[in-house]
Design a protein that fits this description.
Blueprint (H helix, E strand, L loop, with lengths): L1 E8 L14 E6 L1 H11 L8 E4 L2 H12 L7 E4 L4 E8 L4 E6 L11 H9 L3 E3 L5 H13 L4 E4 L8 H6 L2 E5 H7 L1 H4 L4 E5 L5 E4 L5 E4 L12 H14 L4 H15 L12 H9 L1
Parallel strand pairs: 1-5, 3-4, 7-8, 8-9, 9-10
Antiparallel strand pairs: 1-2, 5-6, 10-11, 11-12
This protein binds adenosine-5'-diphosphate.
Adenosine-5'-diphosphate binds next to helix 8 and helix 9.
Length: 279
């Protein structure tokens, strides 16, 4: 989980230059937190395993999770700063982003409470914004306890064998799928590929496949669509829905997220998802 510090500028400063920005806002972010909140809104009973610093951003971010109904039993507060992203957005929409991991960088191992939460869960959802050692450890604990592991392989990077062997469902967009490559993806039992406005594709064990179109919506901002999709897919998977139905639920959530402007969480509630699916 990060605090995004977003400033808008007419143009980016050159090295050594100081310029005046226009607007500034702080927005809670980070894929893990966004997906946890998306899952809670989509009807899940969610515990967040993560780390924040002892700085004021840590307090704000923890309160943000609480306000969204996300459990914090597995939230570690460690000495130092919380993860932050320094974002400048220039006229025309181009941005520069500096991510400082802060407390997220301490998640190479998991404390006993975090480990037990994973064993007790119906599903574990991971992303790659914490150290790979922490993801691999969490996924290994889940797999050993028979808990399905859903990995949103983003930001995409090479995956260690131990992690690949623990993953039940990989959730990737087309670029991430290409970066990981068929050799890796074929080792994962269930593969979900998101296709933007075209929806999502599923490939299961023994070559079963499904394709689900995204509902037609008035998309105004696709930021956060992938996180809404993953959070909702996790809820559907935890309920034991067949893959095609789970993808429909997730596609509806992703589509609804695109109808909301702005940074921050744009994920829809369970009732909004159901309403869209009911047509
Ligand atoms: P990412 O943002 O991670 O690259 P995608 O762009 O594939 O992910 O979007 C994730 C999901 O959000 C899609 O599978 C789809 O369900 C939904 N989605 C994204 N863009 C649109 C759109 N323009 N219209 C409807 N649904 C969309």
């Amino acid at each position: 989980m990060n605090m995004d510090l977003v400033g808008t500028v007419a143009h980016f400063p050159a090295p050594g230059e100081t310029i005046l920005g226009r607007e500034f806002r702080t927005v809670p972010g980070g894929k893990g937190a966004n997906q946890a909140i998306a899952a809670a809104r989509a009807g899940g009973d969610v515990q967040f395993v993560g780390a924040l610093g002892t700085d004021p951003f840590g307090d704000t971010l923890a309160a943000h999770l609480a306000a969204e109904g996300v459990g914090r039993d597995g939230l570690d507060r460690v000495d130092g700063v919380s993860g932050i992203a320094l974002i400048t957005v220039a006229d025309g929409g181009e941005n520069t982003i500096v991510v400082v991991p802060g407390a997220n960088g301490t998640l190479a191992d998991l404390n006993p409470v975090q480990q037990q939460l994973i064993r007790d869960a119906d599903v574990l959802v991971c992303q790659l914004e914490i150290p790979m050692a922490g993801v691999t450890r969490g996924a290994g604990i889940a797999a050993a306890a028979g808990v399905p592991v859903l990995l949103n392989a983003s930001p995409v990077t090479a995956l260690p064998d131990e992690l690949i062997d623990a993953v039940t469902v990989a959730i990737v967009n087309e670029g991430e799928a290409a970066d990981l490559g068929d050799a890796v993806l074929q080792r994962i039992p269930h593969l979900v590929t998101t296709l933007g406005a075209a929806g999502a594709r599923y490939r299961g064990p023994e070559g079963t496949t499904a394709a689900v179109g995204a509902p037609a919506v008035n998309a105004v901002d696709t930021t956060g669509a992938g996180d809404a999709f993953t959070g909702a897919l996790a809820v559907a998977w935890s309920r034991g829905l067949p893959p095609a139905e789970a993808l429909e639920y997730a596609c509806a959530a992703g589509a609804l997220a695109t109808t909301v402007f702005g940074a921050g969480v744009s994920a829809p509630t369970e009732s909004a998802i159901r309403e869209l699916l009911a047509g």
